[in-house]
Amino acid sequence: MRIIPLRGSGVVWLKCPACRLKCRPTAVGPDGNCPRCGDARMLRLSLGGRRTQPTRAGERG
């Protein structure tokens, strides 16, 4: 059995702006529409992860 992480860096959730459903990318069909209302726009959310800012060539961190 595969254990899917619910939190942490790299975990992606999708949110439908029409019905506010939050789901994993595996729950969305091949067309990418919302499984509840069928809306075509699904927003990508990344929860719990830190954003890494790209470093420029001359900068040191």
Mean pLDDT: 77
Helices, by number, come to: 0
DSSP strand (E) fraction? Answer: 15-25%
Number of strands: 3
Radius of gyration: 16 Å
Descriptive report:
Helices cover 0% and strands 16% of the residues. It is mainly β. The protein has a 3-stranded antiparallel sheet with strand order 2-1-3, with no helix packed on it. The protein is globular and about 30 Å long. The N and C termini lie far apart (41 Å). The relative contact order is 0.27. The mean pLDDT is 77.
Highlighted features:
mainly beta, three-stranded antiparallel sheet, 3 strands
Strand and helix layout:
Blueprint: E1 12-15, E2 22-23, E3 43-46
Antiparallel strand pairs: 1-2, 1-3
Concise structural overview:
The chain has 61 residues and is an all-beta fold.
